[in-house]
Design brief:
There is one protein chain. The protein is of the alpha/beta class. It folds into 2 domains: 120 residues, Rossmann fold (3-Layer(aba) Sandwich); 71 residues, Orthogonal Bundle (Arc Repressor Mutant, subunit A), CATH 1.10.10. The chain contains 10 helices and 5 strands; from the N terminus they run E-H-E-H-E-H-E-H-E-H-H-H-H-H-H. It has a 5-stranded parallel β-sheet with strand order 2-1-3-4-5, with helices on both faces. Strand 3, helix 3 and strand 4 form a beta-alpha-beta unit. Helix 3 packs parallel to helix 4, helix 7 packs across helix 10 and helix 9 packs across helix 10. It is globular, with a radius of gyration of 17 Å. 39% of the residues are buried.
C-alpha cells in the first residue's frame, strides 16, 4: 500500500516542490494540501494520511498548535514531520514535545525527504538522531525525572540506546538480544512513558534529565 502524505505549508512553491518529490517516488503519494495549520485536523479526518509534512511557522495556526490539535482530536493521528529553516529553532523542540515524530530542513535533498517519510512510517529508528539529540539536550535538566516511571533496568538500557539514535537491530547487537525481544522492550518503554513513538520517548528521556547531553 502507498504511504499517504499531506502537505501543510503557506508557500505554494514549497508545496509544489514537495509534491513533485513525493509523487515521483514509488510507494508514496500526496493525498492533499493545506495552507495553514487550522485546516489540518479536518483534512486528516477526511483524507487519513499516514504522514503530515508540516511547516513549523505559519501566519494563523502554526505547526506546533496544529500538531497539538492533531494529537488531541484525532483517534489515530498520523506521523508528523515538521519542516523548518533552522534545525536549532526552538519551534522544532516545541513541535517534538507536542507530538511530532521528527523534522526536516527546507533545504533537504529529495532523497532525504523520501528517507524521512519512510523512517517515521517504519518507526524503528530516529529521524536525524544527532540533530534531534542536540536539540533535546539543550533543554535537559539535571536529575532523573523518569525515576517513577517503573522502567526495568533492561528497559532503561534500551531507552538510553534509543536516545543514542540506535535502531532496534543496533540495540539488539549492543545488548546481545533478539530483535523481537528489543521490539518488546521498546513497546514497554513507550507504554510506560505514554509516548506514541520512539521520538517522543527520546524527547521525554532528555526533557526529564534521564539522559544527559553527555550521554
Amino acid at each position: 500500500m502507498s504511504v499517504r502524505v499531506l502537505l501543510v505549508d503557506d508557500e505554494p512553491l514549497i508545496r509544489a516542490g514537495l509534491r513533485a518529490i513525493v509523487d515521483s517516488e514509488d510507494g508514496l503519494s500526496v493525498v492533499g494540501e493545506a495552507t495553514d495549520g487550522a485546516e489540518v485536523p479536518g483534512l486528516v479526518a477526511r483524507l487519513r494520511p499516514d504522514v503530515v509534512l508540516m511547516d513549523v511557522r505559519m501566519p494563523a495556526v502554526d505547526g506546533i498548535r496544529a500538531t497539538t490539535l492533531l494529537m488531541s482530536t484525532v483517534d489515530t493521528p498520523p506521523k508528523v514531520i515538521v519542516v523548518t529553516t533552522f534545525e536549532n529553532d526552538d519551534y522544532v523542540y516545541d513541535a517534538l514535545l507536542a507530538g511530532a515524530s521528527g523534522f526536516l530542513l527546507k533545504r533537504a535533498r529529495p532523497e532525504e525527504i523520501v528517507a524521512a517519510i519512510r523512517t517515521v512510517v517504519a518507526g524503528e529508528s530516529l529521524l536525524f538522531p544527532a540533530a534531534l539529540r542536540r536539540l533535546a539536550a539543550r533543554h535537559a535538566p539535571a536529575g532523573d525525572g523518569l525515576a517513577g516511571a517503573g522502567l526495568t533496568e533492561r528497559e532503561r538500557e534500551v531507552l538510553r540506546l534509543m536516545a543514542g539514535g540506535l535502531s532496534n537491530v543496533e540495540i539488539a547487537g549492543e545488548l546481545y538480544l533478539g530483535v523481537q525481544t528489543v521490539k518488546t522492550h521498546v513497546g514497554n518503554v513507550l507504554a510506560k512513558l505514554g509516548a506514541r513513538d520512539r521520538t517522543q520517548a527520546v524527547v521525554r528521556a532528555y526533557d526529564s534529565g534521564f539522559v544527559t547531553p553527555s550521554g
